[in-house]
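All the exercises in this workshop are built on plain-text protein records. Sequence and backbone structure share a record, each on its own labelled line. The question running through the whole workshop is how a given chain folds. The record below serves as our worked example for the rest of this section.
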Amino acid sequence: MRVDTNGGGGPPVTAESLLDAAVQAFLRAEFDIVRPLLHRLRSEFGAPGADPAAVRYDVLLGALAARAGNWPEAVRRCPDAPYGAETGVVHALAVSALRELAREGRHEDAGVAAIVIVLWAYLLEDEDLGGFRALLQERRGAPVSDELWEQAIGQLRGRVAELLRAHDARAGRDALAAWHTAWEAECQIGAVFLADVPTDAGPHALVSVEEAARQLAHHGRGDDLLAAYATRHPAVGRWSEEAPEHRACAPFLRRALVDRGRDRVRAGAWGEALADLGAAVRLGHPLGAEERADVLRAGKNVGRSRTGRDNAPLARIEGLEQALALLPEDELLAGELTAELVRQGERTAATDPRASRDWYARALAVTPGHPAALAGLDAQLRADLEKALQGTYTGDGIPADQVRGLLSRHPGHGPARRWLENHYTEHAVTAAVAGRSDEARGAVLALLRHQDPAGAYDGELVDDRLAALLVAAARRTDTGTPLAGPEDGAALERRVASEVAAARQRGVLLARRAALERRAALLSTAAAIPGPGRGDVARMADGALLHLALHLQADAAWTDLIDLFLGGRIPTGADPALARAVRGAYLCRARAREQAGDTEGARHDRACADGVRAGTPARAPLYRRERRTPRPSSDSGQDTLW
């Protein structure tokens, strides 16, 4: 649209002519007429909405805002790429931003830093697409020679870079968050986008971490990249291409790691070099021929001094493990590592047997079947077996598989055979008492085959041996009294009462009770194993049970004694002494309940005592709280007493 303000006699006024007039007025420093022209432009034509007019308009408004100190408005108006804007206006805004950023106290204004980075990268672009050289020639009134142009460009670049570096150093920013890194990235690939930069944002808003890493790698600043990245992700050993948080920067990190690793090889920092090369491989770098040679060289020398006096065995082992992880097929590295692990096992054998075993085991993991490692482990195991048989072993436990392996290599080793027999026996007894019958029989069968591999063993023989093992374990239980059948009479009760009193005085009452309970459990388990000839075992089980019941009676453990009866461990009518003990327990507990005010509980206990005295069948109900009379015997169950 054209507007003729002179009645048709003068040139027509257009939006473009008004914008041109405003730009020229700005360049002539006639600032008092720039804003009226822009106001007329907006009122008559509206703000330009299409490039390049929109870019020229925004840059001009940004320059005016900068002159007034309104930097949020200047940042908002400044375009990401000011192509098409008048070079002089761009230069004026860039100079104002550079001066503002250099002022003390303004160095944290990321919006100003963004303008400096974007506009000066545009003005100093190598191809001079913005016409900055022509502007300089116009202002000088003379051509600018190539030599002078390059010198001036270098000085300007240096001034911007030094200012940004100074601010980065003052704020303690690392390379991945530095304004200087954003400056390099903008100069190379145009990575800063002002539309995304809020005025109160930090340097991280200027360029992404990925772009910063790319820039650092491109400019040969791998050490800076690695230092900054390690600050954010200290666990270098977990850097991996598969990890989402490392995937974006992986290409730049691995190149930097390889370069630093090879530099460290040349400097003789073998362990650090292997760590760098290993991290690069985890980030997806395939080792080339020269890098593989570096790994071999580092593995050969890691942990070693020139004289041999200051060798570091642990550092050598760690380095060899890293080298072997990089070259897993290399037999030389595997042999060196195995030898070092064996030597370390030998060094610690006397002072730290557990650590010594670990070293030998690691050697076998590298070279299965290595004779020296096996011999070292066997020596450790022999010592442990001797201690175990003597009762002085204090370790976490001896694995049966290791003992079987020792016997496969040394069939005639007696301590190993005895220990394994004890192991099978203990396993069988423990499983049987816990009710795991099949497991117990399997352990007995393993014991029999261990003793005579050529023998034939049927189920009856296995059961007989299991019962014998249980009886033998009961005999070894320290109860203070020998195994025998059930005794009778008041003399037995007096003897048990005397034993309880003596045990209480010595402070071993609980230990004695536990031993009696274990003996009763072992013998009752043996008596329950099917097979002929268990009568003697059953009588011993009854005797052990009677001894336990009288112990509880003498210790006034009435409820525990009643629980034995209710659990079916004491069948009614089996033995008069047991019946008397149960009846006495009910009566004593009844008196205690009555004294405590529990009349109903006392009545219940007396009714149960009367049932025991009457010789009620083992599985007949004696009392139910909801019925005063016994129920028919067909609905039986000793647990219905309560």
About this structure: The two ends are 107 Å apart (CA to CA). The chain has 29 helices and no strands. Residues 362 and 566 are 56 Å apart (CA to CA).
